[in-house]
Amino acid sequence: MTPVKRVNRFFMLATAPFIGLLLCLVLYRPSLTLDLETQKFLPVPGPLQTTDAIGRDLGLAKTSASSTTHAISTTAKLYRQTTATMGTLVDQARTQAARPEQIYNRRISSRLGFPYDVIDSSRITIELYRLNPGDYTGYAMKVKLKDQTAMTMSLPQKGLGSSETTLQAVSRYGAVAGINAGGFADQDGKRYPLSTTIVDGKYLTGFEPSYKDLSFVGMNKEGKLIGGKFNSRQQLDALEPRFGASFVPVLLQDGYKTEIPAKWQTAPRRAPRTAIGSYKDNQLLIVVAEGYNENGSSGATLEEIQDKLFKMGVIDAYNLDGGGSTSLIFKGRVVNKPSDGGLRPVPTSFLFFK
Predict the structure, then answer these.
(1) What does the pLDDT read at residue 63?
(2) Which three-class secondary structure state does DSSP give residue 22?
(3) Distance, CA of 332 to CA of 165 (rounded, Å)
(4) Are residues 334 and 201 in the same domain?
(5) What is the extent of the structural domain holding 51?
(6) Are strands 215-220 and 241-247 parallel, antiparallel or unpaired?
(7) CB neighbour class for 2 (10 Å; exposed up to 12, middle 13-18, buried from 19)
């Protein structure tokens, strides 16, 4: 572009606004008439609005704005009322939905009596009851897991082949309650868990198909009690076990009593017992029977424990290791009276956390 053209373009851009203003004055200039009496130029009546017309328009606009404001206010009020109503309906629906659960829980508790100690938090609720059916004495612990991580299974600090009391496990992990878990076998001065044992979703020594009367019992990833006999790892893996141990026998399945093997009816007939079961709402019930010796003259029979769990409305239940292994820890103290005179070191314990 030449210097002349640049100068011309600059003047065109600079004078464009003034030229536009002049055109507006020429094209839209109002007609004027001379008032001879006042010698003033007055606008000629034309398309421009009069003061009265402008006033009427302003009045209409004010009325319209007032109506719009009122409509908006009414809509906002209706919205708030609707929101409040919906909130009330949601609260009522939530209350109604929880009512069957509350009724069911009261029904369970009424069969157990009145808890003499309670642990309650956002993660777990544990109620401790005394049992005295007549032929034996013991305790029941009803557990509601609000968080699946509020329960786990521990191994001794020194690992496989070692053992520790349930009280030691409770103290070491900072748990609020605990019970003994699966059975064990002693070999070369070491104590090993029986059969299939799972900790943190991993098989401790691999999967072992159920044999004789042994069964697996534990918790899955959803915090539900699982158990029974498994012929293949695929069967057990399908339940997504998080932890669990093995012992004998199964006491209840799907709300029905299972047959107790003859051997376990008499070896011994009466003994300290630990059993764990679950209700249809997934709450747990743990029953611990007292016993001062293992010669069969104190404690409970498996049939008595099975019958107690059945009458309590438990759906599935499994016998855990008993005798001198039976341990119930609650708030840092030993609740039951161990038949060995003191707590027996065991390889696995179920722990509960606040």
Answers:
(1) 72
(2) helix
(3) 13
(4) yes
(5) 29-66
(6) antiparallel
(7) exposed
Identify the pLDDT of residue 7. Answer: 41
Residues 59-64, mean pLDDT to the nearest whole number:
69
Specify the amino acid at residue 197. Answer: T
Q: Are the C-beta atoms of 313 and 210 separated by less than 8 Å?
A: no
Same-domain check for residues 279 and 337? yes
How would DSSP label each residue in 152-164? EEE--TT-TB--B
Retrieve residue 351's tokens.
Answer: 């722990």
Specify the pLDDT at position 4: 46
Using alpha carbons, list the distances in angstroms from residue 175 to 23, 124, 152, 170.
90, 12, 10, 5
Identify whether residues 345 and 227 lie together within a single domain. yes
- Within 10 A of 10 (CB to CB), how many other CB atoms are there? 10
Mind listing the pLDDT tens digit for each residue in 3-58? 545 545 544 555 555 555 555 554 555 444 444 444 444 454 555 456 666 667 66
Inter-residue contact 273 to 288 (CB < 8 Å): yes
What SS3 class is residue 126? strand
Of all helices (H) and strands (E), which one includes residue 139? strand 138-145
In the chain, pLDDT over 70 holds for what percent of residues? 76
Structure tokens, 240:
């997504």
